[in-house]
Amino acid sequence: MWAAQILLALIGLSAGVVVAGGLFSFIIGLGVVSDFADRTHTGEHVLLYEDCVALGGMLGNIFFIYKIAIPHGGFLLPVFGLVAGIFVGCWSMALAEILNVFPIFIRRVKLLRYIPYLIAGMALGKGIGALIFFINRW
């Protein structure tokens, strides 16, 4: 009985480590972290940024699994939502940039004059969608 539980725990932990490692490798491989460092001219701290991304993922999982209450969480929720939205937006844009989705789409549809409006529309849509989601959660 105990051996089966220990084996299942090891398998679950190993699978979690593999999936988390793959996700963080994907984020770093997309260049999101290095792009942030490049745009802010703080490239010498890129290893610290990568460590912070991994630590944030681990702490987020720990808080979620063990249901740890965060003091003043209601006050910090909009701040977290803003920061998480910015990160997810940059992550999706980095993925799209690597896949060259937007340049091909823009050339085929001939949207060269409307690119600023397209980007603003995507940003507004993402922001309004997040706002609706969080308003419905409360």
UniProtKB/TrEMBL annotation:
InterPro entries attached to this UniProt entry: SpoVAB (IPR020144)
Keyword tags: Membrane, Transmembrane, Transmembrane helix
Keyword Thylakoid: no
Domain of life of the organism encoding this protein: Bacteria
Transmembrane segments: 6-34, 46-69, 75-102, 114-135
Protein's name according to its UniProt entry: Stage V sporulation protein AB
Species, as recorded: [Clostridium] hylemonae DSM 15053
